[in-house]
């Protein structure tokens, strides 16, 4: 039997999933484990790196058993981005919990950078605005959280990495300490022009170079599995890529005008662009991927609370007591049961606002309450908040010279809501094309691994791309929704000022 299977590990914020894809790109086996999130203080969000690893190894092992180890040609990894973890090189044990992308514990440090006038330089070098979202300030915090952390890192005894490098280290028994260009570009330490760790940024964040991983193309050999109970030795890891980047790749291989929005706990809106132009202040310019032949850039806005906003509203309104199927039905039917929100706007700045506002001091609010507001109006306001936040990012993207929007390509759990997708299409005035493949990030990583295995051009992978369902915008409704969108933006400004007023 030939080695025809690529197993993609998709390590997200709330689940670790492994998916086996055959030579035709069909999903032939999969496994999933839930992951927990801890919030020990206001604004702090963290996860156990050891539990992330255990769940990831377990699901890969289960899928290997399902397909048979003799069929496995390669592994691929897609991962939650910006989440930072540190570990001791000798033991592989973590310094402490992984600090997730949602965490805002480094807000004061980021404020200090802005006060020092560093933001313009950081943006010009790395493509990223100053924000607690990105990994460098988290890595700085991790070194300060353990005795002699800085000295140990300078001596090469501590490793600092994104989740891809943490997983790879343990998959290969510590023999490979690498990350890919897409994850490196999310740290705020990569120079976009040279595609190397930047000495000035390392000095600014006080991160020793010897504590960081080697950067490699997203498609190519990263190392071989070794010393694992349920995973045979010698399986090559042939791709690593951030999960949002992987989804963009699986949607359309980076075709111009195909803008991607992943709807999950938070959302990533990403557009492929041909240059590393960094002058759109509100957005990140990033490396979308390196396919083994060339770097592809992406223009991106990150939103911390989209699906998370709906989950919070479901809890507040008592919908969280429903079964998963009943909750999904309620989220489809409740917003359609009312003609509007009765003027209610929900700004889900639960740990601050991301793109295009980048205001970690903002706090959530429900604006416009009146006596007639019922649960359906509140649920609708939560769902509408997703579409407005994505429209805000798209509006900012239009400032980039390479940006084009032919269709919004969407994926993620909340996209199963047809009402939400139609509202998004009507608001933006462009087709929304939904992939109903739940394993899209895993598929993108697997395609990059397949490319490296069989040595084909990226365009030759197009035959494996999934089908999409299209939501066509209603032009008349598009015009009407512009007023609501402007009212939403006014509510955002209230969310940004209320904390200062309270102080």
UniProtKB/TrEMBL annotation:
Official protein name in the record: ATP:glycerol 3-phosphotransferase
The protein's UniProt keywords, in alphabetical order, are:
ATP-binding, Kinase, Nucleotide-binding, Transferase
GO terms for biological process, alphabetical: glycerol catabolic process
The record's annotation in PANTHER family points to:
GLYCEROL KINASE, SUGAR KINASE
> Locate the Carbohydrate kinase FGGY N-terminal domain: which residues?
5-249
- The answer, when asked if Transferase is one of the entry's keywords, is yes
Organism, per UniProt?
Phytobacter ursingii
The protein's GO terms of the molecular function aspect are: ATP binding; glycerol kinase activity
Task: Give start and end of each Carbohydrate kinase FGGY C-terminal domain.
Answer: 260-451
Question: InterPro entries this protein is in?
Answer: ATPase_NBD, Carb_kinase_FGGY, Carb_kinase_FGGY_CS, FGGY_C, FGGY_N
Q: Give yes or no: UniProt keyword rRNA-binding.
A: no
Q: Which protein family is named in the record?
A: Belongs to the FGGY kinase family.
Q: Taxonomically, which superkingdom?
A: Bacteria
One GO term describing the cellular component:
cytosol
């Amino acid at each position: 039997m030939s080695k025809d299977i690529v197993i993609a590990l998709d390590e997200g914020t709330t689940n670790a999933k492994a998916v086996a894809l055959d030579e035709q790109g069909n999903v032939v086996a999969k496994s999933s484990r839930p992951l927990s999130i801890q919030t020990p203080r206001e604004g702090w969000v963290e996860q156990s790196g050891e539990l992330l690893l255990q769940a990831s190894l377990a699901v890969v092992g289960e899928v290997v058993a399902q397909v048979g180890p003799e069929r496995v040609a390669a592994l691929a990894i897609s991962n939650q981005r910006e989440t930072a973890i540190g570990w001791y090189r000798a033991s592989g044990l973590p310094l402490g919990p992984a600090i997730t992308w949602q965490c805002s514990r480094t807000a004061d440090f980021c404020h200090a950078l802005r006060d020092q006038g560093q933001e313009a330089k950081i943006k010009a070098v790395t493509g990223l605005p100053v924000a607690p979202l990105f990994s460098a300030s988290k890595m700085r915090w991790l070194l300060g959280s353990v005795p002699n952390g800085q000295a140990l890192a300078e001596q090469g005894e501590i490793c600092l990495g994104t989740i891809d490098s943490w997983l790879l280290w343990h998959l290969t028994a510590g023999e490979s300490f690498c990350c890919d260009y897409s994850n490196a570009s999310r740290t705020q330490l990569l120079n976009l022009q040279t595609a190397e760790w930047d000495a000035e940024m390392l000095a600014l964040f006080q991160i020793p170079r010897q504590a960081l991983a080697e950067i490699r193309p997203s498609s190519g050999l990263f190392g071989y599995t070794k010393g694992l109970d349920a995973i045979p030795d010698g399986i090559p890891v042939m791709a690593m890529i951030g999960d949002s980047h992987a989804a963009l790749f699986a949607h359309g291989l980076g075709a111009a005008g195909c803008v991607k929005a992943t709807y999950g706990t938070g959302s990533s809106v990403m557009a492929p662009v041909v240059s590393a132009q960094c002058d759109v202040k509100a957005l990140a310019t990033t490396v979308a991927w390196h396919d083994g032949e060339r770097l592809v850039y992406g223009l991106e806005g990150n939103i911390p609370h989209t699906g998370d906003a709906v989950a919070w509203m479901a809890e507040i309104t008592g919908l969280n007591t429903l079964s998963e199927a009943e909750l999904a039905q309620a989220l489809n039917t409740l917003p359609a049961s009312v003609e509007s929100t009765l003027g209610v706007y929900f700004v889900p700045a639960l740990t601050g606002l991301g793109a295009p506002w980048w205001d970690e001091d903002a706090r959530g609010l429900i604006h416009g309450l009146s006596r007639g507001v019922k649960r359906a109006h509140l649920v609708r306001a939560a769902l509408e908040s997703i579409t407005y936040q994505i429209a805000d990012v798209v509006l900012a993207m239009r400032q980039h010279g390479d940006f084009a929007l032919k269709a919004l390509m969407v994926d993620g759990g909340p996209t199963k809501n047809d009402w939400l997708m139609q509202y998004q299409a009507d608001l933006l005035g462009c087709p929304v094309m939904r992939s109903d493949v739940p394993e899209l990030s895993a598929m993108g990583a697997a395609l990059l691994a397949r490319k490296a295995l069989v040595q084909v051009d990226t365009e030759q992978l197009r035959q494996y791309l999934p089908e999409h369902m299209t939501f066509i915008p209603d032009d008349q409704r598009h015009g009407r929704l512009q007023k609501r969108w402007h009212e939403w933006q006014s509510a955002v400004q209230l969310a940004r000022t209320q904390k200062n007023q309270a102080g």
